[in-house]
Give the backbone structure.
Amino acid sequence: MKSQPIHLLTFLIKLEKMKNKLSHSFFKIVVLLFLNSAFFALAFAQTSDTVYHPNPVIGVVDGTPVTFEDVRNKKSNDLSLQLFQQLSIQLIEFSIEKLAAKHPEIKLTVDKKITIKEIIAFYEQNNLKERGTLDQLRPQIEKFLKQQVRSQHMLNQYSLALKKGWIVSHLEAPSDFLLKGNIKTAYMRGNKKASVVVLEYSDYQCPFCGRVQITLGKLIKNYQNRVAFGYRHFPLAFHQEADEAAIAAECAREQDKFEEIHMLLFKKPKAQTLDNLKKYAREIKIKSPAKFDKCLESEKYRGLVNQDLKDGAELGITGTPGFFVGLFDYKSGEIQGEVLSGAQPYSTFKQTIDKYLSRNQ
């Protein structure tokens, strides 16, 4: 019996209309269940006489076939990546539980215990002091580390089963999908001619943006010769004074005082009226306070801030902080990479940066 085609686009359009009527969690489950069914239909086809194609034709427009790659954007790429990751986890769990009953080499239980030394190291390495004391965060850290140990154990058992030939996987990760952007008017630090860049989009009244500055400072120190670090503005609409603060930073930049006011604004997110901003300019000993005041009052850099917002939104940034990390052509300012959302720990930034650095070796 011939299977019916999966009308993925029609389904997602209908589902988008239902989104407001469903809870966020239930909406994600419905999407995942549908995509799971689509994937398993393809996976089954791979074991039959039909050859599975990783870039399937999803429609025909004016007689020309349209493939998944033709229409892939960040949202569809994120969904396909999430699906791959979820199915990978499910396949590992299912396979190991089933094989453990038959093969004594496969162990379900994890012997390793989490030590207080490991908990302290994780707490310190990820700059968690501002989020709570060690005693407050210890249960969460311990739970996270246990999950990591179990995941690594299951992965080791899965690798053993693959080596023994007890498992054959047809899962295939989506091909790389790199967003394209440009630093344009970003304020740059680190090695401005580096082949990799971390471009931050932030809001001076966002508490998480302030917290991540410690992590960024550490990254700049450790990667100063190998990575460029840029800053562009992304003042959120519900932060009433954030756009004025962004303009103030650019006015200070005119007089080579960007970094000084930049850090001061993150330290004082709740006091950023025009009077406050003028006061801060004098605190950092700006060369011409009168020039700064005129620049601020006339909103000289309103257009620049609005362009930053537009470009950030086109990359898929919806909140702050957001980071565009990837390969960098310093001559053109072009970037090809991915977006990291939120105040990520040092380890996440390091893993992403190192991935792009390795591509240029």
About this structure: Residues 74-175 form one domain. The chain has 13 helices and eight strands. Strands lie at 57-61, 64-67, 179-182, 187-190, 196-202, 227-233, 322-329, 334-341.
